[in-house]
Amino acid sequence: MTRLVLLPGLDGTGELFAPFIEALGGFPAQIIAYPPDRAMGYAEHEAYARSQLPREDDYVLLAESFSGPIGIAIAATAPPGLKALILCATFAANPLPVFGPFSRLLGALPAARVPPQLAAPWLYGGRATPELRRAHGEAMARVAPAVINARAAAILKVDQRALLRRITIPIMYLRAAKDRLIPALACRVIQQLRPDMEIAEFDAPHFLLQTEPHRCVAAIMSFMHRNVDELIGAADHEPDPPLDVGQSLRVSKLTQAELQEMDRQLLAQASASWRKVARIVATTIRELRESIPGVPDTYYAQRVQNLVALGKLESQGNLAYMRFSEVRLPQGE
């Protein structure tokens, strides 16, 4: 079974992936968390990550922020089972070259914690929720300050650009258009070396997976359907199944009034922001479980597709997979 293997940002705990994991809706995922008490450079982080990679399953590697150079280094050696690389708000080489000469000084400075409130403007871009602020603060508190210093110093020295040309698997880059930490040039540098790389851009800050988890999931699943499934020969995640005989018989007995009520409830669960089709379907079924019982979720998903065709909803992702597609009310309504 193909899984998504996640390499975390500077905190290294992987705890900040929580909103993204929830948005995956059960899709198999593995987080590789780095040791919080060992000051290491990129080579040591790469070795540690390699030791945790799946041994049996096929997988797609998603490297966030600090972990971008690690993901690139791993992908360049084509380990067994790796089918694609996804880079998120990250870089191949020091994204702030003006600070490069200070890497040795940074590593030698006394270890100290940076208050999360000082980092907030660079990470959240005004989109922080109390939950995200708390999660970020707790994650950083679990990591020794000396470890953060060592990782920051490693960023100022890293250069994996030469490895990009060795990667033979599909590559995707998730770019945060309002990223105040990693400049747009970091993505362009990778794109120049890998013009075949697919780029998905979001109107979001550096904490992209945390502020736009559902849209990121939709983009990733679309990328995987187009690339990874073809590489492994078959999809691990099948599209929504057709109605069986019993289900078709139940649906055939629905009245026009019941169909209209189903559509009304589906639209009532939608909003101006993107929502996963599976969530809308599940909520609608709960609302109608007494008045219209026994209707399968796949038929509700078909009604959603019909509403999209009629222009009453907008969609992104593949609607044949209710878990990996999203809808919203048309903009301006």
Topology:
Layout: E1 3-7, H1 18-23, E2 29-31, H2 42-52, E3 59-64, H3 68-76, E4 82-88, H4 103-108, H5 116-123, H6 130-141, H7 145-155, H8 161-164, E5 171-176, H9 184-193, E6 198-202, H10 208-211, H11 213-232, H12 245-252, H13 256-269, E7 275-276, H14 277-287, H15 297-309, E8 314-317, E9 325-328
Parallel strand pairs: 1-2, 1-3, 3-4, 4-5, 5-6
Antiparallel strand pairs: 7-9, 8-9
Helix pairs in contact: 2-3, 13-14, 13-15, 14-15
Give the structure's gist in a few sentences.
The protein has 15 helices and 9 strands. It is of the alpha/beta class and 333 residues long.
| First-last Cα distance | 41 Å
Radius of gyration: 22 Å
The CATH superfamily of the largest domain is Alpha/Beta hydrolase fold, catalytic domain
The secondary structure category is: alpha/beta
CATH topology of the largest domain: Rossmann fold
Total number of distinct structural domains: 2
Strand order of the largest sheet: 2-1-3-4-5-6
Can you tell me about this structure?
- The strands form two sheets. The protein has a six-stranded parallel beta sheet with strand order 2-1-3-4-5-6, with helices on both faces. A three-stranded antiparallel beta sheet has the order 7-9-8.
- The relative contact order is 0.12.
- Helix 13 packs across helix 14 (277-287).
- The chain is built from 15 helices and nine strands.
- It has two domains: 3-232, Rossmann fold (3-Layer(aba) Sandwich); 245-328.
- Helix 9 links the parallel strand 5 (171-176) and strand 6 (198-202).
- 44% of the residues lie in helices and 13% in strands.
- The two termini are 41 Å apart.
- By secondary structure, the protein is an alpha/beta fold.
